[in-house]
């Protein structure tokens, strides 16, 4: 094996070591933000996915490493510029004109950390690798916690949609139902589709699952977009099914279904139901996206 052939992996090994070292240094520098982010993720069900996002992103970089790191260079100027913009944004997050309530500081501080990481990547590996790693790097944006005002509006939209779907399902199965805002009254029980019933956590999980599936298994842009887009209405539909199912079970089987384990911890069951509904669409998209084998003429 020639020396030239060995130089690429050797050089990349040095780049990897530099990248990991700089990420570790940034972890120490931004310890306050990262620790606050972990605490927030573990305490808020709408953001429980946050701690997993960097792991998934770095795993994607690993499994796609042959393509991403096939061409690497050092982009010192652009890399430092992107990282520096992250540092400046971090300063503004806590001392600038941004609102200091409603989770805005953590929103901007987390965004600044991601900018620093992406600047470090650009510095170590260059534009060609940065373009090929676009999805794993942009995937890190899912780490950014939503400001409270945006989160509240998102949950409200899920409540509205879930209540409407449940109302229509009750009518479809012939159960008398009255709706008053987020209150649904059926014979024997009145339920409220509260914030805790918005299913925000499983909706985010479904969105991320569709996003990863689209990236890993689809190649055509509109098909990728369609799969991800379908996760949004499907999140509302599956939550409406969940509300209707639990209510009917409480009426006809046992009232404890509205307070038992299936109510509090059964989101995963209905998440799997959503995947089951989406599965035929995914198969159609994936099979139609496979490269067509050339036909050989026998004439």
Helix content: over 70%
Spatial sequence of strands, sheet with the most strands: 1-2-3
Q: How many helices?
A: 12
Order of helices and strands: HHHHHHHHEEEHHHH
Rg from Cα: 24 Å
**Beta-strand residue percentage:** under 5%
Total of domains: 2
Main sheet summary: 3 strands, antiparallel
The first-to-last residue Cα distance is 47 Å
Which structural category do the helix and sheet elements fall into?
A: mainly alpha
Number of β-strand runs: 3
Task: Please tell me the overall pLDDT.
Answer: 88
State the low-pLDDT regions, or none: 1-6
From the spread of the alpha carbons, the general shape counts as: globular
Short description:
This protein has 299 residues and is mainly α.
Written description of the protein model:
- The chain has 299 residues and is mainly alpha-helical.
- The chain folds into 2 domains: 3-142, no CATH class; 150-288, no CATH class.
- 71% of the residues lie in helices and 4% in strands.
- It has 12 helices and 3 strands; from the N terminus they run ααααααααβββαααα.
- The protein has a 3-stranded antiparallel β-sheet, covered by helices on one side.
- The two termini are 47 Å apart.
- The model is unreliable at 1-6 (pLDDT under 50).
